[in-house]
Write a structure and sequence with these properties.
Layout: H1 5-14, E1 22-25, H2 28-38, E2 43-47, E3 58-59, E4 70-73, H3 76-86, E5 90-92, E6 101-102, E7 106-110, E8 114-125, E9 130-136, H4 143-149, E10 154-159, H5 167-176, H6 181-200, E11 203-214, E12 219-221, E13 225-228, H7 237-240, H8 250-257, E14 261-264, E15 269-273, H9 276-288, E16 295-298, H10 305-316, E17 323-330, H11 335-349, E18 355-361, H12 364-373, E19 378-380, H13 384-395
Parallel strand pairs: 15-17, 17-18, 18-19
Antiparallel strand pairs: 1-7, 2-4, 2-7, 3-5, 5-6, 8-9, 8-11, 9-10, 11-12, 11-13, 14-16
Bound molecules: guanosine-5'-diphosphate and manganese (II) ion.
Residues 44, 52-55, 70, 72, 111-112, 114, 117, 140, 209-210, 222-223 line the site of guanosine-5'-diphosphate.
Length: 399
């Protein structure tokens, strides 16, 4: 799960990490009050979306211009004007994709005087099963780019969970970043703080880009991206509260309410499958026969008729879907339950696109029988390859 920059900075602040003073706002009146509270003389106006690259991003609407989602204001009026220009607009960055993201919240901060921009992040390294640090002197730019062009400027190491975070880790980072004096001491403390935060909050990523050295020689977290392990959210109600549903795909949000494993994709064939492995195989074989899946959907092992109905409704609500492939291997799941779910959903929402159903396993005859007797225009398939070929053919304009 993802949160906004201002929320991540609030958590950093609670842990004692250095951040600028700031106030999140939803409209111009709030912005006016926030600007006065912060006092200036420089304010930073930051669009809050779940994507990076805002500074270099562009608004789709012309009046917000080419100026990007992070702007420096030199007067109260200018700061409020920037807020008004950004709110409600669609910001396109290299991370949002071409459709961009609508800006519903703005974070106003006191401006920091930057001497150097650095990079620091923590993530779960699956290879070593440890938390890894990445640090670089090249802050404010994409770390992927730094890794490709000047990999020697990146320091990475992982922390042994048995001994935990140690002062030498902090000194190692400070040395690599060329920090001295007070900044060095602050860095050692920050590394300890971030590791503790990462573990306690069950993060999967904490990225501070840029971490800056101010002109007065202190370090500060100027931007922060924080992701959390969704499987650990049950023990963090305070994080769940930070969820911004407007940032999420409405179909994925709906699916999560019914405990369906659903991920929206860009293709044209909607898939309903039981089991993550079978779902992956189904997506692969759709690609093999020349089309693209519109989603990943695993209805799970013990899905009820209601769950299947909801899953079907979510698939058909996607205007990109030109055909549906239901591929079920009934182990724990019974084929007749799937058949009933599909029929119930079609009765409720109608069926505008071709539907191929491949059932196999427990109660398969009963399932097929239910579908045959339903009078629905369903194309039956015998195996996975047959099913994929049939739906691709139906979508591409064949018989
Ligand atoms: P991103 O573009 O989404 O990664 O947003 P950031 O929060 O990283 O801001 C982008 C850039 O804006 C930073 O790399 C800085 O160069 C600049 N910036 C952000 N905050 C400040 C600030 O307080 N003072 C100054 N001078 N520049 C800032
Ligand atoms: Mn950034």
């Amino acid at each position: 799960m993802n949160i906004h920059e201002y929320q991540a900075k609030q958590i950093l602040k609670e842990y004692g990490a250095p951040v600028s003073r700031g106030v999140p706002v939803l409209d111009a009146a709030e912005a006016r009050r926030a600007v006065e509270t912060l006092g200036g003389p420089v304010w930073v106006v930051k669009a809050q979306i779940h994507a990076g690259g805002r500074g270099k991003g562009k608004f789709k609407e012309s009046d917000a211009g080419e100026k990007g989602g992070v702007r420096i204001a030199k007067s109260e009026d200018e700061a409020v004007a920037f807020v008004e220009q950004m709110l409600g607009k669609t910001l396109v960055t290299h991370q949002t994709g071409p459709s961009g993201k609508q800006v519903g919240r703005i974070y106003l901060e006191e401006g920091a005087a930057i001497a150097r921009e650095l990079y620091l992040s923590l993530l779960v390294d699956r290879e070593t099963s440890r938390i890894s640090f990445i640090a670089s002197t090249e802050g404010g730019m994409d770390i992927e780019e730094v890794a490709a062009e000047t990999p020697e400027k990146i320091l990475t190491f992982s922390v042994d969970p048995a001994t935990g975070i140690q002062p030498f880790h902090g000194r190692k980072v400070a040395f690599a970043l060329g920090l001295e004096g007070q900044a060095m001491k602050q860095c050692v403390k920050l590394i300890d703080t971030l590791y503790r935060l990462f573990v306690e909050k069950d993060c999967s990523l904490v990225e501070i880009n840029p971490l800056i050295v101010t002109e007065s020689g202190d370090i500060k977290c100027l931007d922060c991206k924080m992701n959390f392990d969704s499987n650990a959210l049950y023990r963090h109600p305070e994080i769940v509260e930070l969820r911004d549903e407007t940032e999420e795909d409405p179909k994925e949000l709906e699916a999560s309410k019914f405990d369906l494993n659903y991920i929206a994709l860009d293709g044209e064939i909607g898939c309903m499958v039981n089991g993550a492995g079978l779902a992956m195989a189904t997506m692969d074989i759709i690609k093999l026969y020349g089309s693209e899946p519109a989603n990943f959907l695993d209805v799970g092992g013990g899905a009820t008729k209601e769950k299947v109905t909801e899953a079907f409704k979510i698939i058909t609500s996607d205007p990109q879907v030109k055909g549906i492939l239901v591929n079920i291997f009934g182990g724990i799941m019974r084929c007749d339950v799937i058949a009933e779910g599909v029929i119930a959903a079609v009765k409720e929402v109608g069926l505008q696109v071709p539907l191929v159903v491949r059932l196999e396993g427990t109660n398969v005859e009963l399932g097929k029988d239910i579908i045959n007797k339903s009078g629905l225009d369903v194309i039956a398939a015998d195996n996975l390859a047959d099913a994929a070929q049939k739906i691709v053919k139906a979508v591409k304009g064949g018989a």
